[in-house]
Write a structure and sequence with these properties.
The chain has eleven helices and eight strands. The mean pLDDT is 95. Strands 1-2-4-3-5-6-7-8 form an eight-stranded mixed beta sheet, with helices on both faces. Helix 9 links the parallel strand 7 and strand 8. The protein has one domain: 3-Layer(aba) Sandwich (Rossmann fold). With 265 residues, it is an alpha/beta fold. The termini are far apart. Keywords: Hydrolase. InterPro entries: AB_hydrolase_1, AB_hydrolase_fold, AB_hydrolase_sf. This is 3-oxoadipate enol-lactonase II (Beta-ketoadipate enol-lactone hydrolase II). GO terms for molecular function: 3-oxoadipate enol-lactonase activity.
Length: 265
């Protein structure tokens, strides 16, 4: 693990794979950390240079000063790329990581060859549920929100039949600093890039679960219909965390897109 010193804290990151390979940058979801991508890293380490980070307030990164914004988190990514002297890369993001990807595609497109964005949303339509979640976390801690989140994150019956997976995700999220989680929740709540979507021409694959309740499929369809170089891949029997609900389909979509294999979308 390495650390990049920024103005008000240290950002944890890790590089692996080929030192001179094409770069893949992995950006995790709200409450997760870079370990979310362990399975995907194993798929690409022999063919690419890998960069992954803990966003501010997550994993081994410092909390920094909250609240955060998507712009702030995206600029952290740019600082890391500059620090590593990476001029261009491909970005793979999930949920919060996909919002960061959309901001970067809109504002710094020359830095990215392509993007794979899972559970993507270009704006939050209703802020009240996020305010309610923040208030609950402030009073009762992160563990108090999982009844709600399990319903949003997983397709019906997944929780009951996959307790090991669900508990592992819960443990990872519970390890996140409360201030960091709340700060990033505010960033998600306040994000809106709808007016920039038509300007985005980065080659892009959106991955969404057919039963996603956190970022419904209609949101991904709107992004795909507006961005000029964007494809949508829908995974059946999955909700927001298709990455763990349907791992083989999720990974195959990523590998095929990176390797320019046509997708059945």
């Amino acid at each position: 693990m390495d650390f990049l010193k920024l103005a008000d804290g240290n950002l944890a990151y890790e590089t692996s794979g080929l030192s001179d390979g094409d770069v893949l940058l992995f950006c995790h979801s709200l409450g997760a950390n870079q370990c979310l991508w362990d399975r995907q890293i194993a798929l690409f380490e022999d063919s690419h240079k890998i960069v992954r980070l803990d966003l501010r307030g997550h994993g081994q990164s410092d909390v920094f000063t909250a609240p955060y914004s998507i712009e702030m988190l995206a600029k952290d990514v740019l600082h890391l790329l500059d620090h590593l002297d990476i001029r261009r890369c491909s970005l793979i993001g999930l949920s919060l990581g996909s919002m960061i990807g959309l901001w970067l595609a809109a504002h710094e497109p020359h830095r990215f060859n392509q993007m794979i964005l899972a559970g993507a949303s270009a704006s939050v339509q209703k802020s009240a549920p996020f305010d309610q979640r923040i208030a609950r976390i402030q009073e009762h801690g992160l563990d108090s929100m999982f009844d709600e989140l399990n319903e949003r994150w997983y397709a019906p019956n997944f929780v009951a039949n996959n307790s090991n997976v669900v508990n592992a995700v819960r443990k990872m999220v519970n390890a996140t600093a409360k201030v960091g989680y709340i700060g990033a929740t505010m960033a998600v709540r306040d994000f809106d890039i709808m007016d920039k979507l038509s300007e985005i021409d980065t080659e892009m694959l959106l991955i969404t679960g057919a039963e996603d309740k956190a970022t419904p499929i209609a949101e991904a369809e709107a992004i795909a219909a507006t961005c000029v170089n964007c494809k949508l891949f829908v995974i059946e029997n999955a909700s927001h965390l298709a990455i763990v609900e349907q791992p083989e389909l999720f990974d195959t979509a990523i590998v095929n897109f990176i390797n320019k294999v046509p997708l059945s979308v």
